[in-house]
Design a protein that fits this description.
Layout: E1 3-9, E2 13-18, E3 23-28, E4 31-34, E5 39-42, H1 46-63, E6 70-75, E7 78-82, E8 85-94, H2 99-104, E9 117-122, E10 131-132, H3 134-139, H4 145-168, E11 171-182, E12 188-190, E13 199-203, H5 213-216, H6 222-236
Antiparallel strand pairs: 1-2, 2-3, 3-7, 4-5, 6-7, 8-9, 8-11, 9-10, 11-12, 11-13
Helix pairs in contact: 1-6
Length: 238
């Protein structure tokens, strides 16, 4: 595999073309942002840590029957991934009330609902990534009802597997956001990272936040906390 020119650069990742048209290299950056890029910083070794954590989780999902874009980790901050057609819809899976849901619905953080909550957002930063429903997604031509059913089923299975893994690490998966793509055969594929940048994680014993909220809320020790998450996951997967 030979890495070639840069295809895309986002807030936290870069995507590079390779000499195989079916594969890309995804590189994780040390940059961290919040509030639609209003707040920004550089955290030493964050790219390595988010790559490490996401590689472990995506590898675990691959091993347990989830179709993902992840192939393998290639170095400290890089992953080899399959090329997919991006679906501009984000799925937020909520096991515990927190963050924007708590604020939007005037609910106390930490409430555990009887049901798992699935939110859909349109990936349009110029519109603030608005919440949409199934009918909006179909009307916009983004997904069919059949694909939405599959998307929810996959998201529920991902949630079950990720929750089980993090339970072994002594961490509660409060919520997480993921995106999907279509493979060359048209099948839906998980095409996103799963790291403390995209998951809300709380320590089971102390309730301490172990995710990007440490940056959003000026709690400090972002790099050290990500390092602890990586260490616990390594131990949980032994």
């Amino acid at each position: 595999m030979k890495q070639m020119e840069l295809l895309y650069e986002g807030k936290s990742k870069q995507i590079f073309k390779t000499d195989n048209p079916d594969n890309v290299v995804v590189r994780f950056k040390d940059d961290i942002t919040a509030f639609y890029d209003i707040k920004r910083a550089n955290i030493l070794n964050k790219g390595r840590l988010t790559c490490d954590i996401s590689s472990m989780v995506l590898g675990y999902l691959n091993d347990n029957g989830i179709n993902t874009h992840f192939i393998e980790r290639v170095d400290d901050d890089g992953q080899l991934c399959r090329v997919v057609e991006h679906v501009p819809v984000e799925v937020i899976v909520r096991n515990v009330v927190a963050g924007s849901m708590a604020k939007r619905l005037d609910m106390e953080e930490g409430i555990v609902p009887e049901n798992t909550i699935f939110d859909l957002c349109l990936r349009r930063s110029d519109l603030g990534d608005p919440l949409i429903n199934d009918h909006h997604a179909v009307a916009l031509g983004l997904l069919s009802y059949e694909e939405l059913s599959e998307l929810y089923e996959m998201s529920a299975k991902i949630n079950s597997l990720v929750t089980e893994l993090y339970n072994k690490a002594g961490i509660t998966v409060v919520d997480f956001k993921i995106e999907f793509g279509r493979a060359t055969d048209g099948s839906l594929v998980l095409a996103d990272e799963l790291s403390p940048d995209t998951c809300r994680l709380w320590d089971k014993a102390t309730g301490e936040r172990m995710d990007k909220d440490r940056f959003r809320r000026d709690l400090g020790s972002v790099g050290e906390t990500y390092e602890e998450v990586a260490k616990r996951l390594h131990n949980a997967l032994k």
